[in-house]
Write a structure and sequence with these properties.
By secondary structure, this protein is an alpha+beta fold. The protein has two domains: 118 residues, no CATH class; 131 residues, no CATH class. The chain is built from five helices and 14 strands. Strands 7, 8, 9, 10, 11, 12, 13 and 14 form an eight-stranded mixed β-sheet that branches. It has a six-stranded mixed β-sheet with strand order 1-2-3-4-5-6, covered by helices on one side. Strand 2 and strand 3 form a beta hairpin. It is globular and about 60 Å long. The protein starts with a strand and ends with a strand.
Length: 254
């Protein structure tokens, strides 16, 4: 089991990958954390852990993550320039476990290039894409007799700005007793002692990024509590009949 400190799950679900016009880091903090945990898991006795990720060090080009298993704590560093990953115990020299993040960094750079391309040549009919994607998220139990709930949706536009979906999108979604609202209407504060509930969901839909095969990767996420969050990538195609979901892949879930 992994326990992440702070509101990283919320931040990761709503944070897009950096564009090529921005300086590194190329990886998101969630990606860096997942890589760190994978390498740290090579060490003996690493099962249930507490994880504390630190901000990216732009001078050293390093991600640093503190991992505390039941035994001795250790640090995992990721060098974005070289791709080297090193897990080392805090008071010992040398790497106790190693790995490489070069492939992940290369993929992040490719995503950033695709994001720049999306800004220059936006995908067609973004409203239609968002409608198809949101309708696909309808729970099987949405019969109209379930308790009322709210979805708060934020979308990222090709120009890099974020905001509410258009009224056309919000008005097109009719799922049981779910009320679909713009993210700006979401409650600004939540009682940390309140019980987690799925009656209120926050969704984020990122800019569609064109793939080499002509389809689009659309990253979306949801958040409904500290242990109720996920990031998913939908591969979507567009033709004369509109948008279609080809496949979905879960990147992470908590």
């Amino acid at each position: 089991m992994r326990r992440t400190t702070g509101l990283l799950c919320l931040a990761a679900a709503f944070t897009a990958t950096a564009s090529a016009a921005e300086p590194p880091p190329w990886l998101s903090q969630m990606e860096a954390m997942n890589i760190s945990v994978a390498v740290g898991s090579k060490l003996p006795g690493v099962k249930d852990v507490n994880i504390t990720p630190y901000p990216y060090d732009t001078n050293l080009h390093l991600w640093v993550t503190l991992i505390k298993p039941e035994g001795e704590a250790f640090l995992v560093t990721i060098n974005e320039e070289t791709g080297e990953v090193c897990a080392r115990y805090q008071h010992k020299d040398g790497c106790a476990a190693t790995g490489s993040a070069k492939a992940e960094v290369d993929r992040a750079k490719a995503r950033a290039a695709a994001r720049d391309e999306a800004a220059r040549t936006p995908p067609p009919d973004l409203d239609g894409l968002q409608i198809v994607l949101l309708r696909s998220l309808a729970p099987a139990s949405a019969t109209g007799f379930e308790p009322p709930s709210q979805w708060y949706v934020t979308v990222k536009r090709p120009d890099g700005t974020s905001g509410d979906p258009s009224p056309a999108v919000l008005n097109a979604i009719h799922i049981g007793r779910i009320q679909v609202l713009g993210g700006s209407a979401a409650p600004k504060a939540r009682d940390p002692n309140a019980a987690e509930t799925s009656s209120t969901m926050q969704y984020s839909i990122d800019t569609p990024l064109r793939r080499p095969d002509g389809n689009y990767d659309v990253t979306y996420g949801y958040y409904c509590g500290a242990l109720c969050a996920a990031s998913i990538v939908a591969v979507m195609s567009h033709d004369a009949h509109g948008w279609h979901i080809v496949s979905t892949t879960t990147q992470w879930v908590s």
